[in-house]
């Protein structure tokens, strides 16, 4: 009865606390649709790739925001090891989950782009391989959290894995410069044709808003999960 009476109140308080995410999500999804339509409708076909170039408006923002998510994991994991505050662990885990999805999506979209461009779905290119390693590390991070029951041990171990995994990001980024690779060097608004810059920036911003939304929602769910676990523990001790 204690859990039944207390849990709805805690859940309601958490929903009010994260109510701002409703606005962020609405803005993010609207911005995503608008920026995709704008990019597809206004961008001229690229000389070599034609309209296939427009997959860039998904591929690059996904990569950038995947790296941002992993950077959040690095920061929150480091802060957790110093403070041992639960919220930092939950934020790191939330960012890791979304970052893993984005890095996985990077590999999928990249393979779709590679097939008509390089003639193969996959090749053990340094950029592709290092990205795949990054993805596997963070899948391992999520598996570690799923199979470690002790809360403190789970937080400490996953923080260590998150920090070590994040150190692979500079390797992914610099792989096209350090080794011989068929993947082109890093693209950014300063390196692409000016006719594509506005659409690229708009999509990058839209994906960033969605990143904030999804990490926020995952953190909200994590807070609710921990509150439920805490209430169950308190009830068991009575």
What is the helix fraction of residues, given as a range? over 70%
Radius of gyration equals 20 Å
Major sheet details = none
Order of helices and strands: HHHHHHHH
How much of the sequence lies in strands comes to under 5%
Integer count of domains: 1
As residue ranges, the low-confidence spans are none
Q: What is the overall silhouette?
A: globular
Average of per-residue pLDDT values: 88
How far is it from the N-terminal to the C-terminal residue, by CA? 12 Å
Structural class of the helix and strand makeup? mainly alpha
Q: Please tally the helical runs, counting DSSP H or I stretches of 4 or more residues.
A: 8
- Please tally the β strands and state the result: 0
Description:
With 238 residues, this protein is mostly helical. The chain has one domain. It is 81% helix and 0% strand. The chain has eight helices and no strands. α3 (56-83) packs across α6, α3 (56-83) packs parallel to α8 and α5 packs antiparallel against α6 (151-166). The longest helix has 44 residues, at 194-237. It is globular and about 70 Å long. The mean pLDDT is 88.
């Amino acid at each position: 009865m204690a859990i039944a009476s207390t849990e709805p109140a805690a859940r309601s308080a958490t929903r009010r606390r994260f109510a701002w995410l409703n606005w962020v999500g609405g803005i993010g999804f609207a911005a995503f649709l608008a920026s995709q339509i704008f990019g597809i409708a206004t961008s001229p076909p690229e000389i070599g790739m034609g309209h296939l170039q427009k997959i860039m408006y998904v591929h690059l923002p996904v990569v950038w925001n995947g790296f941002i998510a992993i950077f959040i994991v690095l920061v929150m994991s480091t802060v957790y090891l110093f403070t041992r505050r639960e919220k930092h662990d939950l934020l790191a885990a939330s960012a890791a989950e979304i970052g893993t999805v984005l890095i996985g999506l990077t590999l999928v979209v990249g393979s779709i782009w590679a097939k008509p461009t390089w003639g193969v779905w996959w090749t053990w290119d340094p950029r592709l391989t290092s990205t795949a390693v990054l993805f596997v590390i963070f899948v391992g991070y999520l598996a570690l959290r799923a199979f470690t029951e002790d809360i403190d041990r789970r937080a400490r171990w996953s923080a260590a894995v998150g920090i070590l995994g994040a150190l692979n990001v500079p390797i992914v980024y610099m792989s096209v410069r350090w080794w011989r690779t068929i993947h082109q060097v890093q693209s950014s608004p300063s390196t692409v044709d000016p006719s594509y810059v506005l659409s690229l920036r708009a999509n990058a911003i839209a994906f960033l808003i969605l990143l904030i939304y999804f990490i926020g929602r995952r953190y909200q769910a994590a807070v609710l999960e921990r509150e439920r676990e805490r209430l169950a523990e308190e009830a068991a001790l009575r």
